[in-house]
Amino acid sequence: ISKLYQTPQCVIFPERTIEECTELNKNKSENEQYSEEVLKALNMR
């Protein structure tokens, strides 16, 4: 799809596990935290 519409794309290789990301997310203030759904969706991509 991105080639069809000529949109830029990038591949990200995270250096953290989902467990580490979840723990770091818990340390953020409540209004800055990602939801568990968002973290799982990002991990699956």
Please supply descriptive tags for the structure shown above.
elongated; 45 residues; 40% helix; 0% strand; single chain
As for the number of domains, it is 1
Measured distance between first and last alpha carbons: 16 Å
Please estimate the helix content. Answer: 40-55%
Overall spatial form: elongated
What is Rg?
14 Å
Average pLDDT works out at: 86
Main sheet?
none
Could you state the order of secondary-structure elements as H and E?
HH
Beta-strand proportion? under 5%
Unreliable stretches, pLDDT < 50, 5 or more residues?
none
Number of helices: 2
Structural class: mainly alpha
What does this 3D model show about the protein?
With 45 residues, the protein is an all-alpha fold. It has one domain. The protein has helices at residues 18-26, 36-44. The model has no long low-confidence stretch (mean pLDDT 86). One of its GO terms (molecular function) is ATP binding. Keywords: ATP-binding, Nucleotide-binding. InterPro entries: KTI12/PSTK. It holds the Pfam family KTI12.
Secondary structure layout plus pairing:
Elements: H1 18-26, H2 36-44
What is this structure, in a nutshell?
The mean pLDDT is 86. The protein is mostly helical.
